Amino acid sequence: MWITVAVLLVVFLASLLSDQVMWSIYDFLIGGGLIFVFATIEVILWNKLKSQHRLFVVLFVLLVFLILWAEMAVGLFDSPLAGS
Question: Where are the domains of the chain?
């Protein structure tokens, strides 16, 4: 949970200091939910999987998170999830 708060706090401070970051309350809710869900999945997988496969699966989940975050932020793949 603290990771979620820390990341959202960085974004909030950036929105106060710069005109380039313009998040609404819905952006913070979606971002916080996304970070929290993926962090929870990471912790569960880290504890359940054997050490041989653990790193690869956790890195894959992290990659999926980053792709989804980028798609929602700037629309890399021009899908309906894109924020543009």
Answer: 2-74
Torsion of CA 23, 24, 29, 31, to 10 degrees: -20
CA dihedral over 49, 50, 55, 57, signed as positive or negative: negative
Name the token pair of 18. 């710069």
* pLDDT, position 10: 92
Contact 22, 45 (CB under 8 A): no
Q: pTM of the predicted model, to two decimals? A: 0.74
CB burial of residue 34 (10 Å; 0-12, 13-18, 19+): middle
Low-confidence ranges of the chain (pLDDT < 70): 83-84
